[in-house]
Amino acid sequence: MRKLVGLVCCFVLLCCTSAAFAAAPIRIGGLFAVTGPASFLGEPEKNTLEMLVKQVNARGGIKGSKIELVVYDTGGDATKAVQLATKLIKNDKVVAIVGPSTTGETMAVIPVCEKEQIPLISCAAGIKITDPVKKWVFKTPANDHVAAEKILIQAQKAKQKTLAIITVSDAFGASGREQLKQMAAKRGFKIVADEVYGPKDTDMTAQLTKIKAAKPDAIICWGTNPGPAVITRNIKQLGIKTPVYQSHGVASKKYIELATPEAAEGVMLPAGKLAVYHLLKKNDPQAKVLKEYADSYRRNYNVEPSTFGGYAYDGFALIAAAVKGGAQTPAAIRDGIEKNGKMVGVSGIFHMSAADHNGLDLSAFEMVQVRKGDWVIMH
């Protein structure tokens, strides 16, 4: 009898241990600029990731494993981002990281993730993040060269031949400037003015006065708020009537609000489809995902979702798809993301591969224009 009780106890213990092993939690990290000048990026990214993890766990997790989330606020500071990435890996033992929010932070964090062999799914757009391909690094916003190409295609349609560019002097702006100059030359445009402004500058009338004197057919501004909003107001104040393009870095209603609807009227830019999801055709392959995300975000936070939150949505979706495929370790998650094939996300339709750790093309963007304080799709 004692033997039988012993065997039963061993069996129960074995079952409990294997059940616990099978349902081991999966811990992922988030690095976002929740405060500071890039908070318009980081806040919706953090909110989105927390919302998704809560939803997944309410459904019992992924394949029985609950998701544990550890999020840190970088404040948009590259040095702090490196310290917090190290903390996530060494102390919190995460198997993957979503973020950071900006290109500068991401470039600083990459060496840490490559050395420690932890998948990083960045929410920043700079092309250098994934080109050349780095084994452990992916990103969910479309490459800035895709956005630049979208703008230049529109400029060609409008028969605009001379361009003025004004770019922010950070990693995102430097990357955009480089892409614009290369691609404009290839497409036969002439750049007649090339101005730069600082991320904290509050008046760009000096640069815009030079641009006005150069008499370009169009102006392209490349940066993230608040700079582009200031430039938009300055353009209005100087009475410049030249058509204006902004980058995808301001593809949220916040830009219109900061610039004022009156000053932003007519401004064009490439935006992720989330900004205009209600205007898409019903058969658009992203329509369902976009509506579900928008409705869910609105319900949880009582504000409109932004394209930037969508970057975190896609980062989590890529990790979740890898886990659904059986991945639990950092290496297996990395392999799962790379070999995932087609994934319909908020930022576009991803086709990740060993040669492409972004996986998005021109279809990720719609050219939009500000009309009466809102976006319309350009045709």
Can you characterise this structure?
It is a single chain. By secondary structure, this protein is of the alpha/beta class. The chain has 2 domains: 26-142 and 286-361, 3-Layer(aba) Sandwich (Rossmann fold), CATH 3.40.50.2300; 145-278 and 365-377, Rossmann fold. 45% of the residues lie in helices and 18% in strands. It has helices spanning 2-22, 39-58, 78-90, 103-116, 144-157, 171-186, 205-214, 227-237, 253-259, 261-264, 287-301, 307-324, 330-338; strands at residues 26-32, 67-73, 97-98, 120-122, 137-139, 162-168, 190-197, 218-222, 244-246, 268-272, 342-344, 349-351, 365-371, 374-377. The strands form 4 sheets. The protein has a 5-stranded parallel sheet, sandwiched between helices. The protein has a 4-stranded parallel sheet with strand order 7-6-8-9, sandwiched between helices. β3 (97-98), α4 and β4 form a beta-alpha-beta unit. α3 packs parallel to α4 (103-116), α5 crosses α6 (171-186) and α8 (227-237) crosses α9 (253-259). The radius of gyration is 23 Å and the shape is globular. The N and C termini lie far apart (82 Å). 50% of the residues are buried. Residues 1-21 have low confidence and may be disordered.
Topology:
Elements: H1 2-22, E1 26-32, H2 39-58, E2 67-73, H3 78-90, E3 97-98, H4 103-116, E4 120-122, E5 137-139, H5 144-157, E6 162-168, H6 171-186, E7 190-197, H7 205-214, E8 218-222, H8 227-237, E9 244-246, H9 253-259, H10 261-264, E10 268-272, H11 287-301, H12 307-324, H13 330-338, E11 342-344, E12 349-351, E13 365-371, E14 374-377
Parallel strand pairs: 1-2, 1-3, 3-4, 4-5, 6-7, 6-8, 8-9
Antiparallel strand pairs: 10-13, 11-12, 13-14
